[in-house]
């Protein structure tokens, strides 16, 4: 399903469940291609974080990654920020709660900044990426940058040093 950000899609996979638990197909190339999500995917990541941990806003400068993200345990508020200068939705953000209960996924196309904050006691977060992580190419912008005006559900998040020291976004400069 399309969101207000050009290219960002909210995927609501079918979940088969009963009293024993559930089953969900988290990737099926043909079905996802028809929805507008194409790979190839080259790297999968899994992170575990505690309540209030905020990771982001991250992106890669010259090797942008498309990311299909989901939560297998707990809940997060996930955010995509359009930093593509020629995009009709430049400077806008989209946020959604991804949970183990809803099993939703968010497709974040290459060129956007991404971040999330954990809203449950603990969360397991999964990323399916279209390019490899390149530490020398990684960049970030401040999670609470007033240019974007993101409304996070956690007022005082726990940040890494890197995220706490991330620069403000400069809309008129080249990145």
Structural features, described:
- With 175 residues, this protein is mostly beta strands.
- 6% of the residues lie in helices and 40% in strands.
- The protein has a 5-stranded antiparallel sheet with strand order 1-9-6-11-4, with no helix packed on it. Strands 8-7-10-5-12 form a 5-stranded antiparallel sheet, with no helix packed on it. It has a two-stranded antiparallel sheet with strand order 2-3.
Shape: globular
* Helical fraction: under 10%
* Low-confidence runs: none
Strand and helix order: EEEHEEEEEEEEEH
Distance between the termini: 30 Å
Q: What class do helices, strands and sheet pairing give?
A: mainly beta
Mean pLDDT: 95
Please list the strands of the largest sheet in the order they lie side by side: 1-9-6-11-4
Number of strands: 12
Tally of contiguous helical segments? 2
- Biggest β-sheet description: 5 strands, antiparallel
Strand content: 35-45%
Query: What Rg do the Cα atoms give?
Result: 16 Å
